[in-house]
## 1
Amino acid sequence: AQSVTQPDIHITVSEGASLELRCNYSYGATPYLFWYVQSPGQGLQLLLKYFSGDTLVQGIKGFEAEFKRSQSSFNLRKPSVHWSDAAEYFCAVGPPGYSSASKIIFGSGTRLSIRP
Amino acid sequence: GAGVSQTPSNKVTEKGKYVELRCDPISGHTALYWYRQSLGQGPEFLIYFQGTGAADDSGLPNDRFFAVRPEGSVSTLKIQRTERGDSAVYLCASSPERGEQFFGPGTRLTVL
């Protein structure tokens, strides 16, 4: 069965420090991969996505993610976090051949807190 | 331009009552999705529409849940005989023919 695992429920980092949020997936083939961010009272916003090609993907707000097929991982990184990055982050997968007409399976999320 | 809107933003109801949740997608988006997000969890797929028809309703938990999109734009999620376990944030998303899903702010449903 398809699934997404985010092993870290809550992470706290100092402002200016680097960040890595982990994501592992289980899928029959290489799925389409996404990272979303959800701030309090806000809707889910897409940070970045991987469909194919270069395994290092750049997104908005200075985030990037690296797809590693051998590890079934798609970890999210940021070199220097800002207090405004405090939010809930969700990794998600869509099926191979993803189109708009496809459901997305989400992980359970990682809550990011920023220490001043 | 306007994003996905959902009404109401909050809904409190009593166990056993009927509720309707509305989603207005981004104009021109052909696909519309409903997800449910329980506290501390990621969104869980319920149903999606391509145009007016439900293309995949495999995520609806039981027959108390039903959704319509009669004119291929606005959608309504309907829940009959609500139960306390239905309490969650219900998210709607829309997308163009091929591409990113854009999410609305959600409707927080509380069943007392």
## 2
Amino acid sequence: EPEVTQTPSHQVTQMGQEVILRCVPISNHLYFYWYRQILGQKVEFLVCFYNNEISEKAEIFDDQFSVERPDGSNFTLKIRSTKLEDSAMYFCASSQDSSYPGSPLHFGNGTRLTVT
Amino acid sequence: AQKITQTQPGMFVQEKEAVTLDCTYDTSDPSYGLFWYKQPSSGEMIFLIYQGSYDQQNATEGRYSLNFQKARKSANLVISASQLGDSAMYFCAMKNRDDKIIFGKGTRLHILP
């Protein structure tokens, strides 16, 4: 069964550094998402990317964050100038379409980001 | 505004018993979808079941069923004949017409042998 893959599984970075989290969504999916989950807490929406542009983003998705689909397969989340509070599990997800009734999101296994 | 509420932070259930995980939602959009996800201790998010707002029948997937009560805006997950492997965090989620799915805070389910 096709799956969403994320790399790396764990990333440690120093405060102020830039990180890039990588994802390969399921190949025939059209909608790509990033979510984050601070340890043991709620799964929080960050951004949706469709048709080569951001279609929806959360208030917290400010200029510190950016997403890109540089080729036909990869989907990346860049975090500039990381802060301690950016430490979380970051999940990539994709869905086939976003129309009603809506396809479920298929999640990757996540990248645990630790900012020291 | 959209909102998902899961009022049970944790539950303990004896193995082989049925369990109901509560979820209520709030939305002004007549078209929406409701989802349940399972997150084991290993951390991955596993899709379990989906219910559309216009679906007439409650969704079922194996041991999982969704008790959808539209007038009460509730979408409870029912797991029949619980197993030790069902111990996990369970998230209820909702999607409206916009391109995001929002999640509740989750319920941690513990199945006791």
